[in-house]
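Many introductory courses stop at the sequence. We go one step further.
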Amino acid sequence: MPRELTVGQVAERSGVAVSALHFYESRGLIRSHRTAGNQRRFGGDVLRRVAIIKVGQEVGISLADIGAALATLPDSRTPTVRDWEKLSRGWAADLDHRIARLQKLRDGLTDCIGCGCLSIDKCKLRNPGDELAGEGPGARRLEV
């Protein structure tokens, strides 16, 4: 592998569009430098960083959170297995919370959600007089 990669090489090796790489760079998720001819060049470490970005996005981690995690790593060093374990462990609690919320949402889809509509027969039993309205707007029973 060449010591430095062009944006096209990074796109080809990572499976990410050139426009996405430019976007990631504009958000500070990856870095490049310019040659004397003003061409963008990336270090080999960028391939692993892009892989981390892609995995994070696939599981629903925001780019802001991915960026914050990547910011804890030294610049221009390829992230190691240890680095990945640290990053993924940091995301696990958030993912567990989202999984619990989605399961509650799934399990409650056919039940009263506390929206205050009082139009379903069950609501008169589960949320009489719209008592949940005192807790705030929206579907109160779906919040985790």
